[in-house]
Write a structure and sequence with these properties.
CATH topology of chain A: Lipocalin
CATH superfamily of chain A: Calycin beta-barrel core domain
Largest interface: A-B, 22 and 26 residues
Helix content of chain B: 55-70%
Strand order of the largest sheet of chain A: 1-2-3-4-5-6-7-8-9-10
Distance between the termini of chain B: 12 Å
CATH architecture of chain A: Beta Barrel
Shape of chain B: elongated
Largest sheet of chain B: 4 strands, antiparallel
CATH superfamily of the largest domain in chain B: Multidrug efflux transporter AcrB transmembrane domain
Distance between the termini of chain A: 27 Å
Radius of gyration of chain B: 30 Å
Number of strands of chain B: 10
Structural class of chain B: alpha+beta
Number of domains of chain A: 1
CATH architecture of the largest domain in chain B: Up-down Bundle
Helix content of chain A: 10-25%
CATH topology of the largest domain in chain B: Multidrug efflux transporter AcrB transmembrane fold
Strand content of chain A: over 45%
Number of strands of chain A: 10
CATH class of the largest domain in chain B: Mainly Alpha
Strand order of the largest sheet of chain B: 2-3-1-4
CATH class of chain A: Mainly Beta
Oligomer: heterodimer
Number of helices of chain A: 2
Strand content of chain B: 5-15%
Order of helices and strands of chain A: HHEEEEEEEEEE
């Protein structure tokens, strides 16, 4: 169950753009596949995701809706990301009733990379789900990587998205 | 004014002749209403409903269905490979299993990839059995997992040449048909050429059967009507006569389809035979009426002379249908109401349409072919010449065929309802071989953990490991088979699975994968052994589609058989009352029961002696056809007798009028019904075959045995 909670945060952040007009470039449907871990000690598990992004120019807001699946589990997710023109700082909010609940996300964008971290505690087990997340865009490919926040040498997920 | 044998129903035709404008207006209005209603004819896609009655078993099944929230249906994807699946294949299949999760309405996908090793401190929900990178060593992992003896289904065949994916679909969100289309598209996209896949499942089978029957029903009705029309033209050698004989019947049968809309009844796998039956009876009436019109030239005389017999045949059929209501089976009620009302409605349309068309369609002068006359006369003459011999042989044949019919076995072969070329047939057998079966037997118990464990273990011993799913599997996986999984432990499982295994009100459920119970004698014995084992081990209820097929379908056959007997007695009594001679009952019984028994006993020759619901329905209709011929013959016979002629002359008169038309209608209907033999569906071929046997048996008994009975010893007294 922890795995899907972590994925919830990873995927929503992965939707953030890192180009001049990032959000508009992010619109559309994306299919992702890769792996993720439940815990730093846990094994890698296969993940596949499908997300759809919708960009509102007036508010500079990207709405994200999608689902991820690991064998035997899947979750539905939704969230929004807000940016300000010319500023590196981004903010966002994610809602996932079955996972971490509602969490705020803050990060920076630089070049074609978005990096951020988030803090979350599994409400059921009390386990620390905090991670560092890096998201990279290259043409029609989005690459998500995350590491454990307490031990950044441990990779927690790697998911590659394509249109 | 006496009502006559038709109880005055033929006066509808007389009315149409007296007030043609009013009748035409009414008929046209009706035609418009029917035309508008036909596109709204609906088919009941839930084949399970056909088995449901007001029995305790049906109620338990309905309670279970209602408890499923959301309502789920499991679609199975059976994947096969000519050689053992490789690590590369497994990666592709895992991606497929994950991609299927994204389908509309899909709530979960079971596959080998959901399996996890038992939990440990580092992995509270267990490590996946299949690592992110699947290597060739997965074969050993799988063997190690099986060695744990949890009994959890691995969804992989022992030879690793078959895998099964179970896709749970919320049918409130997506229909099974749409879900199957999505799954098929995903499978086609993902599967390598070396692998093949077939989609099946309880509801998928139902959907395929209903869709196939729907198409078959429409095409067979259309082709049947066309062939009857062509045959009528060929044999009657008069296009206008053919049109006059067939068009009212087609109109009548269409009216019955519209009636289903007006009554709010969807067409079911049972009721789809009603329009065909009424088409058959309508054509028979049409030929009798048209033949009289050709001989006499007067539409009024045709309606007055033949109409009462036609009305009586409709009434006997309506009584036959209505009598099915007496069986007390809720499911058959709609069938009985539609059949009874439809028969009367169809008759009204046929008699009025014929009357109106007869006024404006002039018939040619060319005589009707004499082959039918020669055949009818030859048979009748034989019956009259050797009455004792014919009666004795018939009695012996009746005894023999009755014995044969009684030896038939109530049987419900669902697989026979699939099209012959359906890949599901072989797939379901393969799944039965590797995974227990497509169907889920559901055992409910309110007992303690020891009881649940006992039942599950006994079922596993009988049906094989990995074919029985219960909380015991998870308790073993957790390492404490002696105690039930705690609520916290069960929370690691998907909610839908928990809901199904451990229902509310302290009910625990055990799911057993089984083949179709009546696939063959062996599967039936296996099912019965499982059922008895579960019952003896303390199961409170045993439900699920296989249980419904095993017991409710057989019960349905029994109910239909009771309905058949009631129909036979009721219709015979009605004819006797119509002719005002209760003594006639003894004369009517043998000629009408013999074709029925003959057809029933013939099931031993071509249906392994299996009495399916389709076969009983065909027999019910068979009796309707048999007694209709008798009514037409007796009507002419007694009409002649009332003119004061001898029994011999009356028989001759009946033979030359009704007898030869009976031969003609038998030939025409055989041609029309013969199209069913081209069907891809065994039940439809069986249905058509039984009707054809009955038609000819009824013709022989009515032209051979009935004259023998009527001329033997003394004539039957009839009061006018």
């Amino acid at each position: 169950m922890c795995l899907v909670k972590v994925l919830t945060c990873c995927v929503v952040v992965s939707a953030h753009p890192a180009v001049a007009d990032p959000f508009s470039n992010m619109t559309g449907s994306w299919n992702g596949s890769g792996w993720a871990r439940q815990s730093p000690q846990g094994p890698k598990e296969t993940v596949r995701c499908r997300i759809t992004n919708t960009y509102d120019v007036a508010t500079n807001t990207l709405a994200v809706a999608g689902r991820c699946a690991v064998p035997g589990r899947k979750l539905t997710m939704s969230g929004t990301l807000n940016g300000k023109d010319g500023a590196e700082r981004i903010t966002g909010r994610w809602s996932n009733p079955d996972g971490i609940g509602s969490a705020g996300i803050v990060g920076i964008q630089r070049g074609n990379i978005v990096a951020f971290n988030f803090s979350a505690i599994d409400p059921e087990t009390g386990r620390n789900l905090s991670q560092n997340v890096e998201w990279r865009i290259s043409g029609d490919t989005l690459l998500l990587r995350s590491t454990d926040r307490t031990n950044p040498t441990v990779a927690m997920s790697k998911i590659e998205f394509a249109r | 004014m006496a009502l006559g044998i038709g109880f005055g129903a033929e006066r509808l035709g007389i009315f149409a002749l007296k007030f043609p404008k009013v009748a035409t207006l009414c008929l046209l209005t009706l035609a418009v209403l029917i035309g508008l209603s036909l596109p709204r004819v609906s088919f009941d896609d839930d084949i399970h409903r056909s088995f449901l009655s007001d029995s305790a078993l049906s109620k338990a099944q309905l309670d279970y269905d209602a408890s499923l929230s959301p309502p789920l249906s499991t679609v199975l994807v059976h994947i096969t490979s000519p050689v053992a699946l490789t690590a590369t294949d497994m990666k592709v299949l895992r991606n497929l299993a994950l991609d299927l999760e994204f389908g509309e309405g899909v709530t979960a996908v079971t596959s080998p990839f959901v399996l996890r090793w038992p939990p440990d401190p580092e992995n509270p929900s267990g490590r996946p059995l299949f690592a992110e990178q699947i290597e060739d060593g997965f074969v050993q992992d799988l063997a190690d997992f099986r060695a744990l003896e949890t009994g959890l289904p691995t969804s992989l065949g022992d030879a690793l040449t078959a895998m099964i994916l179970g896709v749970s679909v919320d049918v409130a969100q997506a229909s099974v048909t749409n879900a199957v289309a999505d799954i098929q598209a995903e499978v086609d996209r993902a599967l390598p050429n070396a692998l093949s896949a077939t989609i099946t499942g309880e509801d998928v089978i139902s959907a395929e059967i209903v869709a196939g029957l729907k198409d078959d029903l429409i095409s067979l009705n259309l082709w049947g009507a066309l062939i009857i029309t062509i045959a009528a033209f060929v044999f009657l050698r008069d296009l206008r006569m053919a049109v006059l004989a067939v068009v009212p019947a087609i109109f009548g049968a269409s009216g019955v389809l519209a009636l289903t809309v007006w009554l709010g009844y969807p067409v079911t796998v049972l009721s789809n035979v009603i329009p065909i039956l009424l088409l058959v009876l309508g054509v028979a009436d049409g030929v009798h009426l048209t033949d009289h019109l050709k001989e006499d030239g007067s539409a009024q005389n045709a309606v007055e002379s033949v109409g009462p017999a036609c009305a009586l045949t409709a009434l006997t059929t309506a009584v036959a249908f209505a009598s099915i209501m007496l069986t007390g089976n809720a499911q058959l009620y709609e069938f009985a109401v539609l059949g009874a009302l439809g028969t009367l409605f169809s008759f009204a349309i046929v008699i009025v349409t014929f009357a109106l068309m007869a006024r404006i369609v002039p018939l040619g002068a060319k005589p009707v072919p004499q082959f039918s006359t020669r055949m009818a006369c030859h048979l009748t003459r034989t019956g009259r010449t050797y009455p004792r011999t014919v009666i004795v042989i018939s009695a012996m044949l009746l005894a023999f065929t009755t014995y044969g019919f009684m030896q038939t076995k109530a049987w419900f072969p669902l697989y026979q309802n699939l099209p012959d070329n359906s890949p599901m047939l072989a797939t379901n057998d393969a799944i039965a071989q590797d995974f227990g079966g497509v169907f889920q037997m559901i055992i409910e118990t309110q007992g303690e953990w020891a009881d649940i464990r006992n039942i599950a273990q006994q079922l596993e011993a009988l049906n094989g490991s990995q074919t029985v799913l219960s909380e015991l599997n998870f308790a073993r996986w957790l390492g404490h088979a002696d105690t039930a999984p705690s609520p916290e432990e069960l929370e690691t499982l998907p909610d839908t699975l928990i809901d199904r295994l451990g229902g509310k009100n302290g009910i625990s459920r055990i799911f057993v994968s089984v083949p179709e119970p009546m696939r063959n004698e062996q599967t039936l014995a296996q099912f019965d052994a499982l059922y008895d084992t579960a019952t003896n081990a303390g199961a409170d209820r045993i439900i699920g589609l296989p249980t419904m097929m095993r017991f409710e379908a057989v019960n349905l056959i029994a109910q239909l058989s009771v309905g058949l007997i009631v129909a036979a007695l009721g219709a015979t009594l009605l004819v006797a009352v119509a002719f005002r001679s209760l003594r006639l009952v003894t004369v009517l019984i043998v000629p009408n029961v013999l074709p029925l028994m003959l057809t029933g006993a013939s099931l031993h020759l071509w249906a392994h002696g299996q009495l399916s619901p389709t076969a009983v329905l065909a027999l019910t209709i068979a009796f309707g056809i048999a007694i209709d011929d008798t009514v037409h013959f007796l009507s002419r016979f007694f009409a002649a007798r009332q003119r004061g002629v001898t029994v011999g002359s009356a028989l001759e008169s009946a033979t030359l009028t009704a007898g030869r038309v009976m031969v003609l209608t038998t030939v025409l209907l055989t041609a029309g019904i013969g199209v069913t033999l081209l069907s891809d569906f065994t039940p439809i071929r069986q249905f058509g075959g039984m009707l054809m046997i009955t038609l000819w048996a009824a013709l022989l008994t009515d032209l051979l045995l009935l004259p023998a009975l009527l001329s033997w010893r003394e004539p039957v007294h009839v009061s006018g």
